[in-house]
């Protein structure tokens, strides 16, 4: 880039030298040719100055353009960094959206787990209640069978001795009442005392 500016400076110097030589030659001819030629020479000099000013402006704008071109890579680097930042921000938003969805899923799964644990505990409680009821019913059933056997044997023994049966009808009715109450799971008054 530095090689371009010296070239422009050399070309600018060359154009000034050339224009001054041309100007002298034109003035020399004009002096010999007359007033009309002198005016033409003067106009040519004005044109030459205008062209030199344009060349100077072009050199200045060329230098500015070169300076701008030198700063373009830095600007491109900044632009790339900005694009990288935008991409990072977009990826961050995607990750945050995924995190929110996963958090909701985990919350639902935890709720389902708690609900399953509660159902399992309810099932275990019901199973324990059923087992304890079954044990109570089995005990009650064996108790009823035992009392039923006792009743049968006492009724058989009572029917074998008829005088004993008629000896105390109140006693027989209270015995029957006690046995029917114990069959229903209620303790008779005579045994409770």
UniProtKB/TrEMBL annotation:
InterPro entries: CEP128
Coiled-coil regions listed in the entry: 85-133
Keywords in alphabetical order: Coiled coil
GO annotations of cellular component type: centriole; spindle pole
Keyword Coiled coil attributed: yes
Signal peptide location: none
Protein name, as recorded: Centrosomal protein of 128 kDa
């Amino acid at each position: 880039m530095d090689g371009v500016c010296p070239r422009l400076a050399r070309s600018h110097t060359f154009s000034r030298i050339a224009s001054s030589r041309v100007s002298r030659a034109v003035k020399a001819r004009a002096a010999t040719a007359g007033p009309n030629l002198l005016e033409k020479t003067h106009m040519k000099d004005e044109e030459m100055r205008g062209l030199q000013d344009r060349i100077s402006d072009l050199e200045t704008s060329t230098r500015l353009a070169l300076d701008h071109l030198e700063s373009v890579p830095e600007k491109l680097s900044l632009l790339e960094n900005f694009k990288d930042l935008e991409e990072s921000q977009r990826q961050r938003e995607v990750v945050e959206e995924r995190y929110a969805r996963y958090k909701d899923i985990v919350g639902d799964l935890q709720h389902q787990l708690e609900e399953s644990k509660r159902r399992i505990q309810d099932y275990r409680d019901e199973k324990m209640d059923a087992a304890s009821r079954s044990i109570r019913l089995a005990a009650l059933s064996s108790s009823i069978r035992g009392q039923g056997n006792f009743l049968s044997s006492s009724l058989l023994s009572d029917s074998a001795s008829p005088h004993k049966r008629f000896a105390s009808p109140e006693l027989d009715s209270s015995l029957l009442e006690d046995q029917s109450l114990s069959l229903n799971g209620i303790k008779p008054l005579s045994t409770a005392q």
